[in-house]
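Quick one, tokens below:
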């Protein structure tokens, strides 16, 4: 079992040392394969055989990135920012400002939630929507650490619970598929329909953490300097200011209608066909045919959008290769047996250690989507050995993978909020995004993930 521990240790150490995660996964896989006696040729063959498992997911990410950038060209994010800013006009008294403050919290949370399923653009909306609102945050003296927590909650909790969009990828294509794949030799199988209910308790823990952030940790006012911010992408001709006096974004009814049609069509296709790839293509095709972006700009829009999501896709492909090498070592049964002997018969202790190891691995990799193939190959037989139910197994592996995503310096769920909130240089990535989200989400996930493992 030493080869598996060495492979994970090398991968984790290199990731923490800021070596690109794809390289860390490859080097870790080669290390494990060589120590297991597979030889270089056998290790690379096992790694290559596993790559195909992540290809579908990576392509889905790339297509959704293209759809996100195409949708941003419609001007919908600018219109939303304008509407929020305009509501501040005349809100000089504290009661009115509180009303606007909570409206902002709800709107930002809904935008993050919808970015995972209804309008599957992931973090692409943040650098478009948030910078125009910084003047609003400054006017209300909102603590941006709270906005970071709201954004991260919407991004992470949604894909952990709702099986549409990126949630379909995480819950069905990755979590469910890997559990059934590695459980097949043991006659262990889960029903995909049971996954959301099994993940409900850990997600409720994240909601508790969000409430603590809103009503306790960051409810006090925080002063920021007013710094002019250039928009990341000016999709329409408009200027916004805190008074709401300047012109409303110029979006034609046709453009707005076609953007909404593209959103609805994308959602319908992904539900009807269960294919994020086809849904994204339909959305891009509608926006292109509607003239949201010029035909000669199509290559640039699509390629730029796919490039935006390419890194996550490559990490997922490499993670499947890593898991394939771990499987080829044939040392998983020995590792499971040794773990059982060390832990004893305590389900509670077993669940705690599995969640803690998941936290450490995800902190290093920075992607819960990429962590599941690495964990599932070991955790599925371990859960079977300790007698966990299918629902408890789902909760343990799903939570163990999601742990760290909300608190990793390399995670999209923290990098995304920072990309928007730090446009004026007043939001530190580690102190204002990573640490707050780690405290308010990872700690509750550990507690409520353990509770789910015990009661399900």
């Amino acid at each position: 079992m030493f080869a598996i521990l060495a492979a994970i240790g090398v991968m984790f150490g290199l990731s923490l040392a800021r070596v690109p995660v794809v390289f860390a996964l490859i080097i870790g896989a080669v290390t494990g394969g060589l120590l297991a006696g597979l030889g270089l040729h056998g290790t690379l063959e096992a790694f290559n055989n596993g790559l195909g498992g992540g290809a579908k997911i990576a392509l889905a990410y790339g297509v959704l990135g293209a759809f996100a950038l195409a949708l941003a060209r419609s001007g919908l994010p600018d219109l939303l920012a304008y509407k929020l800013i305009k509501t501040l006009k005349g809100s000089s008294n504290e009661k009115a400002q509180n009303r606007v403050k909570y409206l902002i919290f709800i709107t930002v949370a809904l935008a993050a939630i919808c970015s995972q399923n209804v309008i599957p653009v992931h973090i692409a909306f943040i650098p478009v929507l948030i910078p125009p609102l910084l003047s609003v945050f400054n006017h209300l003296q909102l603590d941006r650490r709270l906005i970071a927590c709201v954004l991260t909650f919407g991004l992470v909790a949604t894909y952990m619970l709702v099986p549409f969009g990126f949630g379909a990828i995480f819950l069905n294509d990755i979590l469910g598929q890997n559990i059934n794949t590695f459980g097949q030799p043991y006659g262990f199988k889960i029903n995909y329909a049971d996954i959301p209910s099994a993940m409900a308790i850990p997600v409720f823990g994240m909601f508790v953490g969000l409430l603590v952030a809103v009503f306790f940790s960051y409810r006090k006012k925080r002063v920021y300097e007013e710094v002019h911010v250039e928009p990341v992408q000016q999709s329409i001709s408009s200027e916004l200011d805190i008074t709401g006096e300047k012109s409303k974004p110029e979006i034609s009814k046709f453009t707005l209608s076609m953007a909404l049609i593209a959103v609805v069509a994308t959602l319908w296709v992904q539900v009807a066909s269960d294919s994020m790839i086809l849904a994204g293509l339909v959305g891009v095709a509608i926006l292109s045919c509607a003239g949201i972006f010029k035909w000669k700009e199509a290559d640039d829009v699509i390629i730029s959008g796919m490039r935006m999501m390419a890194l996550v896709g490559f990490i997922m492909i490499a993670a499947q290769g890593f898991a394939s090498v771990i499987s080829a070592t044939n040392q998983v049964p020995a590792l499971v047996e040794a773990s059982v002997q060390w832990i004893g018969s305590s389900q509670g202790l077993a669940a705690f250690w599995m969640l803690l190891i998941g936290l450490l691995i995800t902190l290093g990799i920075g992607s819960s989507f990429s962590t599941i193939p690495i964990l599932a190959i070991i955790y599925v037989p371990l859960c079977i050995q300790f007698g966990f139910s299918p629902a408890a197994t789902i909760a343990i592996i799903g939570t163990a993978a999601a742990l760290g995503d909300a608190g990793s310096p390399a995670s999209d769920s923290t990098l995304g909020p920072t990309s928007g909130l730090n446009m004026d240089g007043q939001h530190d990535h580690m102190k204002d995004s990573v640490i707050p989200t780690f405290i308010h989400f990872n700690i509750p996930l550990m507690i409520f993930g353990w509770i789910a493992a015990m009661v399900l």
